[in-house]
Amino acid sequence: MTTTSREPRAGTGEAPEDIKAVPVRHPGRWVAVAVLAVLIAMLINNVVSNPNYRWDTVGKYVFDRRLSAAALVTLQLTVLSMFFGVVLAVLLAVMRLSRNPILTSSAWVYLWVFRGTPVYTQLVFWGLISVLYPQVGIGIPFGPEFASFQTTEVITFFVAALIGLALNEAAYMAEIVRGGILSVDRGQVDASLALGMSRALAMRRIILPQALRVIVPPAGNQFISLLKATSLVSVIAGGDLLTAAENIASANLHTIELMLVATFWYLVLTTITSVAQHFAERRLARGSLALHGRP
Q1: Which of 69, 122, 223, 229 is the most exposed place for a label (fewest CB within 10 A)?
Q2: How many angstroms separate the CA atoms of 211 and 90, rounded?
């Protein structure tokens, strides 16, 4: 046990009195908590006791096979769109950082188009692409065509939704990736080049791994936003969760109940994604925490 000596007061030789710290009271904070608790209790009671919600009907369709299968389609659509979007986003980010004005301008035009137009209209465009191009051909540019296919056979509604979401997501992820690359110290690049690495090799082995720490948090938010944006796929009947809920509701006229079921599934999927994002961020931040002496 350690003791602390008190210095005598100047000119008196007397020790100063102990400081008695009195915690600051916050009565307004407790009043706000009480009011908020009452409002939340009133809201929960109203939602639970209101017969117009028809919770028995909601419970009947929560685990309906059609909706659970559609939820799986939504998750697949989100994961695939995010994967292809990130791959394209890395390419666009590198193009934006390139010293070649043609590459930089091309990437800027891409971002301008896909960030400047609603994803809803982009999905409609890809859903109706067969109207503009009834056939898809493979051959030499401006030359003979080796094979052709009906567009509706190649670009199904699921593929159209995947293309529309991936291209739109790439435009937003490109700026996130570019910000992550710029966060890496320039000296890392110079040291990599001094060791004889090419710019592509330095980007893959040195820059991008370090940039992930900056990229992952906003990328996780983008994934959640993309998951909810898949609801727009219903405009082209892409087989997603909202499309299935709307199809069932059109048959039994339980629109509110089916929307509540769809809301439940979206909350489940976003919660799982948020937990995964949390652990991913903790894993990537281990080096930074250890550097600051934190476990």
Answers
A1: 69
A2: 11
Give a yes or no: residue 24 inside a domain. no
Contact, 122 vs 114, CB < 8 A? yes
Find out whether 137 and 147 touch, Cβ atoms under 8 Å. Answer: yes
**CB neighbourhood size of 60 (10 A):** 13
- Listed in sequence order, the residues at least 6 apart from 31 whose beta carbon sits closer than 8 Å to its beta carbon are none
Domain residues for the domain of 244 are 66-137+147-291
First to last CA, the chain: 27
DSSP 28-39: HHHHHHHHHHHH
Considering Cα of 87, then 69, then 54, then 39, what sign does the dihedral take?
negative
Number of domains in the chain: 1
For residue range 219-278, list pLDDT tens digits in order: 989 999 999 999 999 888 778 899 999 999 988 888 999 999 999 999 999 999 999 888
pTM greater than 0.90: no
